[in-house]
């Protein structure tokens, strides 16, 4: 059985704080993020606790024989009802294994299971060709830009 077939997502918890922070502070992750500074542990734990307490955010850890990445969905308040923004990270040690598509798909499935999601959007740095390709392959379309970020969307009504 291949890794993609064994991939699943679970809710993140405070116990994941150090792991998630190590992925967040990875130089390649920061290169493509809206906020590129290194985040201290105490700030990250406060952020994580607020995410876990929010009904407007879902944070999952993707696993396949151990943690391989994370996918987060944030409800977009200034968009049509049921619009969520996705953020995905593949663990640095798992990059290049073709896991991003499976992480995204598993996250979208869990989002649909838990919420009345109608649309997902992704803000992708225009120079991050791998992420642009990931979202395009997953059915995201659009070319709207917000600074150096391209906004891609995917309707979920028929998903």
UniProtKB/TrEMBL annotation:
Transmembrane segments: none annotated. Residues 7-157 form the N-acetyltransferase domain. Signal peptide: none annotated. InterPro entries: Acyl_CoA_acyltransferase, Bact_Acetyltransf, GNAT_dom. Keywords: Acyltransferase, Transferase. The keyword Coiled coil does not apply. PANTHER family: ACETYLTRANSFERASE, AMINOALKYLPHOSPHONATE N-ACETYLTRANSFERASE-RELATED-RELATED. This is GNAT family N-acetyltransferase. The lineage of its organism: Bacteria, Bacillati, Actinomycetota, Actinomycetes, Pseudonocardiales.
């Amino acid at each position: 059985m291949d890794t993609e077939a064994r991939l699943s997502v679970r809710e993140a918890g405070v116990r994941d704080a150090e792991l998630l922070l190590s992925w967040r502070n990875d130089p390649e992750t920061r290169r493509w993020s809206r906020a590129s500074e290194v985040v201290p542990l105490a700030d990250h734990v406060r952020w994580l606790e607020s995410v876990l307490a929010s009904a407007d955010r879902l944070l999952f850890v993707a696993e396949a024989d151990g943690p391989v990445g994370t996918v987060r969905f944030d409800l977009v308040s200034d968009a049509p009802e049921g619009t969520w923004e996705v953020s995905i990270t593949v663990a640095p040690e798992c990059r290049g294994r073709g896991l991003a598509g499976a992480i995204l798909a598993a996250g979208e499935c869990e989002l649909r299971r838990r919420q009345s999601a109608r649309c997902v959007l992704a803000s992708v740095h225009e120079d991050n060709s791998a992420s642009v390709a990931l979202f395009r392959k997953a059915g995201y379309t659009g070319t709207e830009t917000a600074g150096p970020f391209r906004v891609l969307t995917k309707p979920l009504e028929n998903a």
